[in-house]
Amino acid sequence: MREAFASPYGKALTAELGKSLRASADPACLTDKGLAADQLESRGRDIVVTWGTHMLEGASAFIDRQNSDNPFPGAAELESLKSNPDVKRYLAMEEPIRQAKILDLIFEHFDRYNVVARVKLGAVYPLETGNEALLRLNPTDATEERLETFVSKSRSKGLKRFLQLSDQEAIAQSAAIKKASSPPFPHTFFKGVETDLAELCIRSGK
């Protein structure tokens, strides 16, 4: 989480959150609370990190339960392959994609909850707002191209087996989740964030 928000894409999303907070905060409330506009970005970031962590932990716990009920037969082999030097290099190269996925998930469902709860805060998630400048800062496409080149040039049987098992695990995990009778909606993990946002003079309700 910390590394994701410290990445260039994370910093850009945080700056966009700051703009939204400054535009949405009630000026009279800011005066009453003695809050300066330039304090909103860092405090808003802390709120999103806290609630985003809550969402990821809740979702992970749910996925872990489904996986334990529907174990993937190649899990042990997949885990052991992570010590392979080529797999380690691949995972290190892939890190920006994982960070971007975390950031997108958090801001997508943060924005979605705010709409449902009628929180008067402008959206940040770039696929929702159509912010082309932010979309261009997402490292996913460029990183995927580098990974494809790396894999195409690699002769590592360990790496190829790791990628094969990773795909199988993703399919098995998706199937396990679909079996759940009442999977949680990710945005529901943000229930209560409006109370923290109110401290930054962001209003909710009609």
Explained architecture:
With 206 residues, the protein is mainly α. The longest helix has 32 residues. The chain starts with a helix and ends in an 8-residue tail after the last helix. The relative contact order is 0.19.
* Quaternary structure type: single chain
- Which regions contain 5 or more consecutive residues with pLDDT less than 50? none
Q: What's the total count of β strands?
A: 0
Largest sheet: none
Termini distance? 33 Å
Mean pLDDT level: 93
- Rg: 20 Å
Classify the secondary structure makeup into a structural class.
mainly alpha
Strand and helix map with partners:
Layout: H1 2-6, H2 8-24, H3 27-33, H4 40-69, H5 75-81, H6 85-116, H7 126-129, H8 132-137, H9 140-153, H10 157-179, H11 193-198
Helix pairs in contact: 2-4, 4-6, 4-10, 5-10, 6-9
